[in-house]
Each structure stands twice: as C-alpha cells, then as structure tokens.
Amino acid sequence: MPLLQADNISVKYGAISAIRGVSLAVEQGQILTLIGANGAGKSTTLRALSGMVRATGSVTFDGQPILGQRPDTLVKRGLVHCPEGRGIFANMTVAENLELGAYVRTDREQIEADLQRVYTLFPRVKERLKQSAGTLSGGEQQMLAIARALLARPKLLLLDEPSLGLAPQLVQTIFRIIREINQQGVTILLVEQNAHMALQVAHHAVVLETGTVATSGPASELAKSDAIKKAYLGH
Ligand code: ATP
C-alpha cells in the first residue's frame, strides 16, 4: 500500500479551478516528483494534501483517510509541508525556528538526537543558531526551512520548490541533501521547476498541465521521453 494515495483531488480558489481530478500515489521510502509549468497546480496539490486548502476527492495517508484534517493534526501524524517561500520566522533566531519545528513533539530525548542529525546534514545552520533567521542568505533560509521540517519527524515530507532562486552550486547541494534525507527513511513528495534535477533524484514522476495530470511514470523513463525533454528539459 502506498504511504499516500490521493484520488480525484480538485481545488477551487473562488471561481478559479486550480486543479481537477488529480490522482497520485507516493510509495513508502520513495521520492515522487511533481513537475509542470508555472501555474500548473503543483503548489495547490501540496496544499490540498497538507490541509492548507479545501479540496474534494479522497486522500489516504498511512492507512487512514485524511482529507479535511487540519495541517497541525497532519504534522502530528507525520505529514509535514515545507512550503514555497520557506515560511521561516525572520525576527526569530535560527535556534527558535528549529524549536518550532519540534513543537508538536513530546519525546525530548529524541528531539535532541534529531537536532544532532539535522546539524550533520546542515552544518551551516548549526553555525548560525543565534543569528536572526531573516538575515540568513536565501540558500541558508532554505536549509533552515528543511531542517525545521525534519524536526517534526516526517514520515512524508512535502517539499515545494526547494531549489528556487538558489545559485547552481547550492542547487546541487540541496538535491544531494534531499537524496540523503530520503536514504535516512523519509518518503518525499517534491515539487520542482528544475525538472532535470528532480527527475534525477526521484523514483517516480507526475506531470501536471493546467491543473490535471498529463502523464506519470518512473522518473528515469520520463527523463528519456522526447515530449518531456521538449517541454521541461529544454532540449
Ligand atoms: P508555480 O510553479 O508558478 O509556483 P504551481 O504549479 O505551483 O505554479 P499553483 O500555485 O498551484 O501553481 O497555482 C495554480 C493556479 O491557481 C494558478 O492559476 C494560480 O494563479 C491559482 N492560484 C493559486 N493560489 C491562488 C489563490 N490563493 N487565489 C486564487 N488563485 C490562486
């Protein structure tokens, strides 16, 4: 059984239909990437799954129906959304932002162990614990956002555009870290504009076009498809 199974998900913003009849399945232990042009509905799909917008359809996570549940309830159950724009608290320190990531948890000793794990993944975050988060560089803020999401102990991490606006070298680093996080046992649903990198790191891919699923399949196969190359890989 997939860790997350979404069937026939639709979201409207007022009169605007953002996604229609989207279905996807994220297998336990894998990375699924959701790619597509600007405005195709990728972020909206993540928001629907994490309870940030109202949606119709059905979603099963870890064997239970979850559509309509609040984001904080879902975080406690292990479904954690790291949003586009990062959502860090600029006036708080890096350490305080990290603490917020763990606020739903009560297992204090495990939190300390997870902090150490996060510091190993993101040494730069550890160096800047006392700095206010708003003064971090864009890349550092992205790392802090992912670090904070990991402190909620996700079973499934929803990552929205983690490479957006980063210098090429940092993009490589972010994708290496995404792979490492996955290898440590976290299942990932990755939204990316950088289809080239996303298809390299993911096991499975879903392509959204104007709010519906255009195609899906193993990432390695989609990376070879002429239509995908032409539309999303720039050759
Ligand atoms: P991008 O890659 O540019 O971030 P996306 O694939 O993530 O795009 P969404 O952000 O999900 O796309 O947007 C899908 C559609 O829904 C777009 O037409 C967008 O204008 C619209 N939309 C998104 N958020 C809202 C909102 N809060 N109110 C009204 N319309 C919205």
User: What strand line-up does the widest sheet have?
Assistant: 6-7-8-3-9-10
CATH-scheme architecture of the domain at 4-87 and 154-232: 3-Layer(aba) Sandwich
Strand elements, count: 10
Provide the structure class.
alpha/beta
Query: CATH superfamily of the domain at 4-87 and 154-232, please?
Result: P-loop containing nucleotide triphosphate hydrolases
Query: Which H/E pattern describes the elements?
Result: EEEHEEHEHHHHEHEHEEHH
Percent helix range:
25-40%
Determine the oligomeric state from the structure: single chain
Describe the structure.
This protein is of the alpha/beta class. It has a domain at 4-87 and 154-232: Rossmann fold. The protein is built from 10 helices and 10 strands. The protein has helices at 42-49, 71-77, 94-101, 108-121, 123-127, 138-150, 168-183, 195-201, 219-224, 226-232; strands at 4-13, 16-26, 31-36, 56-61, 64-65, 79-82, 156-160, 187-192, 204-209, 212-218. Strands 6-7-8-3-9-10 form a 6-stranded mixed sheet, sandwiched between helices. It has a 4-stranded antiparallel sheet with strand order 2-1-4-5, with helices on one face. The chain is globular. The termini are far apart. The structure holds adenosine-5'-triphosphate (ATP). Adenosine-5'-triphosphate binds at residues 13, 16, 18, 36, 38-44, 193.
